[in-house]
Amino acid sequence: MRITYPYQAERLGAVRVYALQQVFELDSEPASPEGDTSWGTTVSHVPSEAIIDVQRRMAIVVPCRDEKLKVLEGVLTGIPHSCLLIFVSNSSRDPVDRYVSERDTVERFCRFAQRSAVAVHQRDPALARAFVKAGLPEIVTPEGLVRDGKGEGMVAGTMLALLAGKDYVGFIDADNYVPGSITEYVKAYAADFHLAHSPYAMVRISWRSKPKVLDGTLFFTRWGRTSSTTNRFFNELIGDHTGFGTEAVSTGNAGEHAITLELALKLRFASGYAVEPYELLYLFEQYGDIDPEARGPVDDPELMHDGIQVFQVETCNPHFHEDKGREHVESMRRLSLNVLCHSSICPPRLREEIAAFLSDGAPAVPPPELGPIYPPLAGVDSDVFLAVLAEEAQSFEQIVHPERGRARGRTPIALS
Question: What is the C-alpha separation between 33 and 18, in angstroms, rounded?
Fold first, then answer.
């Protein structure tokens, strides 16, 4: 892959947000004659060997909720073979158990593709017990189930990636109609992780276009309604603290993104659809050196020394996904701005501007809508979590394909 060198960056404390990168070649030669994989040129060449090496150490989590099975099949097809597939379903199980059909879809795909996968249902009571006993009771409802949201599915997927011994975890939404775009996302993850200088890195995807049908023809819109609004206010937040206007943030609502495990274990994940904007906001709050009094002391000298690198990549492929309707879009936009509005680092002027936007002109600050914010996963006992999950969770399964010379392949997560 050839990808532009991110020569511009906004820096807040230990956090560097790089300007939007562009992909020049989806598949460049295996190795350049000069062996250049550095950041020394305008366009960086990352050989396919380097990308595959990173992908072998990466898990791709696919959170799914009642998506069409044909769409799910396409999503699975686009995930590079060298990555570990982790499927986390939050689909309905009554009156029709959709998870059984999804699990069969994943198993059939793995059988023909000769690869392994890990699957679990988010609302499996044993998954909730595993979190409680391992030290994360906040994610469980009084009814004894993991909370019903995308952020919670991402937390579960990150724990499984940790148990599988991976160095990177990426997320791909299950409603994508273009398998080739998914392949591009994952290659972009791997390319930037290869180029990163810090073990604390994140790669966020910005769609080049989101096509819509207008008057019988395709129109390739540049930004979605939610993304354009969230990005605007994120950039105003940064500009207020740096004193310079900026367009640094292009991925405020990036559903497709990836994180090094070392950074993922330090993050605090938000509930539901607030998870993507809150990831960025938490980095600014905790490591951006904006409001030390509200934040408290940061006892993490290694991270503060190495810094956090946030990469943003504009894709070549257009993004076609399931249209969940205007109400869904408005809910995501409102939740994203509510997260910003109630942040301790949001200046009063910007808080009033967001409040006016949300209320069509009224300056009254809306009540907080943000659900639980979970403690970092570094405090979770992974051994206890796995023991409970493996012994009690009926939906937890490791799908293993045969290896040469072996009746069964190795499970992605060792149980002994």
Answer: 28
Model pLDDT for residues 141-192, shown as the tens digit of each residue: 999 999 999 999 999 999 999 999 999 999 999 999 999 999 999 999 999 9
The residue type found at 199 is P
Among residues 221, 186, 226, 219, which one has the least CA distance to residue 313? 186
Q: In CATH, which superfamily holds the domain spanning 2-293+301-399?
A: Spore Coat Polysaccharide Biosynthesis Protein SpsA; Chain A (3.90.550.10)
| Per-residue DSSP letter, 142 | T
Q: Tell me the backbone φ, ψ of residue 273, rounded to 5 degrees.
A: -80, 0
Is-contact 126 388, C-beta < 8 A?
A: yes
91 neighbors 66 (Cβ within 8 angstroms): yes
213: tokens are 């049908």
Structure tokens at 400: 């293993």
Give the containing element (helix H, strand E) for 89: strand 84-89
Q: Which two tokens stand for residue 210?
A: 């989101």
As a dihedral over the C-alpha atoms of residue 138, residue 139, residue 144, residue 146, rounded to 10 degrees, the angle is: 180
The model's pLDDT over 198-251, given as tens digits with 9 standing for 90+, comes to 999 999 999 876 656 556 666 556 555 567 788 999 999 999 988 898 989 988
Q: Which residue has the higher pLDDT, 206 or 272?
A: 206
Q: Measured in whole angstroms, how far is the alpha carbon of residue 76 from the centre of its chain?
A: 16
Show the tokens assigned to 311.
């990469």
Residue 260: name the closest of 298, 309, 313 by CA: 309
The C-alpha atoms of residue 15 and residue 12 are separated, in whole angstroms, by: 5
| 376 DSSP 8-state letter | P
CA distances from 112 to 107, 116, 183 (A): 9, 11, 18
Q: What is the pLDDT of residues 48-59, one digit of tens each?
A: 999 999 999 999
Q: What is the pTM of this model?
A: 0.91
**CA 148 and chain centroid, separation:** 17
**Cβ-contact 268, 180 below 8 angstroms:** no
The three-point CA angle 176-63-72 to 5° equals 40
Q: Which of 217, 110, 187, 175 is nearest to 322 (CA)?
A: 175
Rounded Cα distance, 340 and 409, in Å:
46
